[in-house]
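RETRY 2/3 - previous attempt timed out on the joint model. Re-submitting the same 1357-residue input unchanged.
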Amino acid sequence: MGKAHHAPRRKFLADLGMGFTGLALGSMLNGSTADWAPPDGQPHFAPKAKRVIWLFMIGGVSHVETFDPKPALNKYGGMRLGDTPFKDFADNPLVKENLRELIVGLHKVEPNIYPLQTGFKKRGQSGIEVSDWWPNLSECVDDIAVVRSMWTTDNNHGAQMQFHTGRHVLEGQFPTIGSWVHYGLGSLNENLPQFVVLGEPIDTCCGGLAAHGASYLGPQHRGVQLAVRPEDPLAFSTLGPGVSREEQQSEFELLSELNGLSTAEYPDDAAMLARIKSYELAFRMQTAVPEVMRLREESDETQRMYGLDHEATRSFGEVCLAARRMAESGVRFIQVFHGQNGGAGKWDAHSDLKKGHTELCEQVDKPIAGLLKDLKQRGLFDDTLVVFATEFGRTPGSEGTNGRNHHPYGFSVWLAGGGIKGGVVHGATDEIGFHAVEDRHYVTDIHATVLHQLGLDAKKLEVPGRKRLEIDLGHPIHEIIA
Amino acid sequence: MPVLGRGAFLLLVAALCCFGQEPDAVRLLKQKCLPCHIGAQKQSGLDLSSRALGIRGGDRGPAIVPGNSEESLLMRVANHTATPHMPLQSPKLPDEDLAVLADWIDGGAEYESKAQTQAVAPLLDHWSFERPERPAVPTTVNDEWTRNPIDAFVAAEHERRNLTPMPETDRGLLLRRLYLDLVGVPPSRDELNEFLTDRSPQAYEAAADRLLGDQRYGERWGRHWMDIWRYSDWYGWRKGNDVRNSHRFMWRWRDWIVESLNDDKGYDRMILEMLAADEVAPDDPKALRATGFLARNYAKYDRDGWMQDAVDHTALGMLGLTVKCARCHDHKYDPISQQEYYQFRAFFEPYHVRVDRVPGEVDVDKDGLSRVYDSDEATPTYLYIRGNIQQPDKDKELEPKTPRLFGSGLGPIEPVTLPLSSYYPDHRSFVHEDLTAKAKANIESAETALAKKHEEFAGVEKEVGVLSVAEGYEKMSAAADKLKVAEKTLAAAKEHAIALAARIKADKAKYSIPPDPDYEAFAVKAREAERKAGILKADENLLRAKLDFDKALAAEKPDEKVIGEAKKRIAEAMAALTQASEGYHTIGEVYPSRSTGRRTALAKWIGSAENPLTARVAINHVWLRHFGKPLVETVFDFGLNGKTPSHPELLDWLATELVNSGWSLKAMHRLMVTSATYRMRSTAGDLDHPNVAVDPNNRYLWRMNPRRMEAEAVRDSILSIAGKLDLEMGGPEIDETEGLVSNRRSIYFRHSPDTQMEFLKAFDGPNPTECYARDESVSPQQALALVNSQLSVEKSRDLATKIGTDHDPADFVEAAFETILGRRPSTDEQEVGVRFLLRQPGRLAAWEVTQPGVARARENLVHVLLNHNDFVTIR
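RETRY 2/3 succeeded.
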C-alpha cells in the first residue's frame, strides 16, 4: 500500500473535493433516478422571506377568546344551541364533510353556548379586535395578518401532527413543513443546523418527534432539537467525560490528517469527502450552537422586551429570544413549541378555560410581542416570516361548567413579517365562531403560504415515488401577501 | 382537464378501469359520462365510476336504479326526457346506444362482465409477473475470474460493456467485510492475524462457514429482516401504560426471527409461520411468536389503519408490490383493481391480537405471548368507496382472493379446527398451576400482613396509657381499621383460592372428553364459591374505599379528585355486592375453536415456488445487504412503476436457486460472499480508470460498493473491538436510554416510532414504520455522537488498555489500526500516528488534562481511529 504516487491526487481533492453538500451526496448515494434531481438549494422564484419562526401552541387555543371575537356568544350565553338561531350548525353538512373522527364520539359538539371569558378591544390603526389577554401583542396588531377561517379534519390532538405535515398522526409520518424548507433551500450559515426545534416538542400521543421529522426526505432534513439550556443545547455537543477542549481539537487535527491520507487511497468515495466535511461542521457547530444560546449577552433592555425579568414570561421569553438569535445567525427554520404538558398540551382547556388561558396568554404574550418588536428594530422583520398557530380552536358551547371542547370547524392563526400584509383580517367564521364560512383554509394552506414566501414551489419539491395529493400541498393565501 | 386532451383522458380512464372485457354500456359510460362525472370533477356531485356511486347518485339523487331504466335519472337525461340533456352540449346518443344503456340498467347495471371476473390468465406482459425461468449460466471469456454462477452472470455484463473487474481486495479488508456482513462486528485482531497467516486454499470459505454458524449471524440478519418486516416495540402512550400500536411482547417475535435465521429455517416456512402459525402450529408457542409480524400492525383506535398496514406491508415486504393506491381507486400502474385490494384485505379481516399466558407469570401485562387468531370469521369485507371508511359498499361482500394478475395459484381456503389448548389457552395445566400458586402466595402474604397488624395493634394498646384520650382514640381506631382491612383481605384471599379450585374443577369437567357427567354439579359449586369470594372481595374493597374516603375528607386540603376516586370505588364495591351471576366464570377467555384458514392459504401462495415475486423480492433484499446496492433498485416495487433489474438473469437464477435450496437463506449468503464479485476491491483507486467513464455508478458491479455501517453495527462494533460486547441473546426489550451504558447488542433495545436510542437515530437507525432499505446519510450529528458520546470516549479508553500498555509507539499504532480498521497503517499513517503519540503527552500536560501521559495519548489515538472514516465504512 505505498502512498508516494498519491501526492498529486491529494492536491486534486483539496482543490475540488470538499465542496460536497449533503444534498448532492444524497443523490449520489441513492443512485440515479432518471430526469429527477434533488433541489439545488436555490428558491424557485424570488423569495420575500429568508427564514421562518414557527410558533405552535400545543393543545388548541380558543379562537373566540383570542383573535376572533363573537359577541353573539355573550348574547346567547347559557342557551342551548337548539334554542338559538344557530340551531342547525351542528347538522351543517360542513360537520359531516370535514370531520373525520378516528376515535368516534370522543369529543362532542357542545350544545350549551358559553359566553366569552374575556373582553375584546379594537387595536392599533387597523382596529383589529384582539382579546384583553394579549395587551402586548395588541401593540403589534398592525404588523400581523389574522386568518380567522382555518379548519382541519380531526377533533383530537393527533391534529397537532396534521398542522405540521398535513396528515393526522394516525395516518403515519410525513415530512414536516420545516423539513420541506430544509430540503428545498441551502444553508444561510455553515456553522449552524438549518432547521432547529425550540421549546418542548409535542407529546408522543400526538406525533412526538415526528412533528419535526422529515420522514422520507431523509434524516439529514430533520429538525435538530436544541434546548435553551446553555450547558447542553445539542445532543452530543458537550465534551465527553474528562475531555478538554484542546485535547479534542488535537484529535480533530489528527483525524483530519489521517482521513486526508485515506482520501488519496479512495478518490472515488463521495461519502468519505462528505464525512470529512461533516466533521468540520460538527466541530464548528458544537461551539457555534452554544454561542447562539448565550442569551445573557443581550442588553437588559432586550431581555426585558422578552419578559426575561418576570417569572411568568421568562421561560418562553428565553425561547423567543433564542429564536431571534438563531434567525439573526442564519438558521432557516425555527420551530418553537409552547405548552407541552406530557399529554395533549396545556392549551387544552376542557375545564377552567378562563384561568388556564389567562395564565398561558400571559406566558407567551410579552415574549411574542417582544420577538416581533425586536425583529423590527433589527431590520429582520421584513424577511423573517413569523407564524402563530395551534391545532384547532375551541367549541362555542361549554364543556362541563367552565371549559370548551375541541373544535376543528373554524379557528384562527396569524402570520407576520416576511412579506405578509400587516393589520389585516382574512376569512371569517359564522356569528358564533362555529364554522369557517368565508375564505376557508385547510391547514396546508399555511404550509403553502410559507413555502411561497420563501420562493419555493411545493410541487417542484416532490420526490419521485412519493406522490402528494392536492390537499397535502395546499394553496398560498394570496390575500394576505403584501 | 387542463393538461390532458380529451383523448388522452379517455385512455387514462380506460387504463384505470379495465383489464379485459367489459359491458358495452360501461364503455359508453366511460366515453360519454365519466369525463365530467368522476373523482374530483364530479359535476353536480355525481361520480359514475362505480356501480355503488352511480346508485348513490349526486345532488339530484340516484342516477342509476338497477333493474329500472325508466326511473334512472341517467337514462332520462340521456334520452332527453329530463333536463339538462346529456351528454351536455353534445348530440343526443344514437338510439342503439340508448338501448344498450337501458338494457344494461334493466339487467342490474353490473360494471364488470361475467367474462371479466372469470378471466384468469396473466393480464400483462411484465417481467416480474411471470414466474422466473432458470436461465442457463453464461459461458464467459473471463473464466479465471469466475468462481461461481453469480460471477458468470456478472462477468457476462462486464464483457458486454467492456468493464474490467477490480482485483480481489486486501485479505484483511475482505475478512472485515465478511465479518461485518455476516455477524455485524469486525474480526478481533487475533482472528484477523490467524486468517492472514492461514495459507490453506479454503481459508476464506471456512471463515464464511464458521460465521454462518455463529449465533451472532441471527442477530445481524435478524435486524435486516426486522427492517423489512417493520419491527416495532409497543408504543402509544407509555406514561399511561396504554398500548396503542404494535403489541406488548413483540420481543418474542424478534427472538423468533433471530432463532429462525440461525436455524436456517426455510424462508417459505418463515412466511407461513409469520402469517399463520396460529393455524399451522396452534400448539407450538415457539412458532406462535412468529405472528408478531401481524400483531405489530395492531392499532387500538384504528382498525382500518391496522388492516391497511397488514395489507400494504405484506405486499410491499414479501411481494414487492405497492397496492396502497388501490385503497381509493384502481391502481394506476399495476393491474390491481380497487376491488382486488379489498379482496386481499379479506385474508386479514378476521384476525385480531391477544396475549396468551406464559409459564411463571399470571399477569399478562407483565409477560405473555402476543399472538394473532381469527376472532370472528363472519366479519364482512367491503370495498370503501374512494377509500372513504365512512362509505363501505355494502352491496357486495368480498371474498378473500389474490389479484387476478397472478392467475389461479391460490389453493383452497380450508377452515382449521383448533385444539383446546389453542382456543382455550388458560385451560393449559401450567396456567392452573400458576394461578393456584399465586392464590396460595396471596394467602400467605395476607397472613403475614395480618400478623403484623396484630402486633402493631398490640403495640398501640400498650402505648395508649400515656397518651391523651383524643390521641389514644385516634391511634387505636387507626390501628383497628388496619387490622380490619388485613382480616378482610385474608378472608377474601382464602375464599378466592377455594373458588379458583372449584372453577378449575368445573372447567376440567366441562372440557373433558367424553364430557364429565358431574359437570353440572361442579358448575353450581364453582358459581357458589365464586359468589362467596366475590362478596368477600367486595367487602374488602368497600372497607378500603371507605377508609380512603374518610382520610381524603379529613385531609387539611381535601383533594376533590381523591375524594371522587374513593366515592367511585365505594359505588363499585356496592354494585359488586348486589351483582348476581348466572354461572361461574371460566378461568380465562374461550376463543373461537375454528380459524378461517385464510391466512394459511395466503401464506402458502406467497411462499410457493410458483409465485413470481416472492423469491425475487427476497433475494434482492439479501443482495442489497451484501453488495450495498440491490439488483432491482426499487426494493419494494417490482411492479410496472418499479425499476428493471440491472442483471435480470442473475436475479432469476438466484430466485430459482433460493427455491431449489429449500428456501435456505444461508445457502444464498454463502453463494454471494464466496463469489469473486463479492471479493473485489471497492475502489478503482484512480478517477481516470476506464470503468469510471463507462459505468460511474457501478451498476454493473465492476467493483464492490463501499458502505457505511448501519447504526447498530457502529455501536456493536465499538463495543466488540473494545472487548465489552455482551453476547447474551434475547429477552424483553431494554430501555432505549440505556444504550450508552449497557453493553448488549443494539437489536435488543426498545425501538418504536416514538422511542429510539439517540445514538442509533443519528446513524439513520431504521424507521419502524417503514424501512425497506436504510438511508446512508452523512451528518454532523453522527460526528458529534462518535466524538463526544460517553460510549465512544469510554470505550476508547478500554480499548487503549486492551491493545496493550507495553508497546512502543510504532507497534501501538500498528496494533490500533489492525484492531479498529482491520488493516495495517500505511507508512504515512504510521509516521503521523507515531509523531502524535510522541508529541501528545507534553501537550496534554500543558492543557491540564486530568491524567496526562502516554496512556492518555494512546486513548486519544484510539478515539480518533474510531472516528476515522474507514472505521464506519465497510470497504
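Chain A has 14 helices and 15 strands. Closing ticket.
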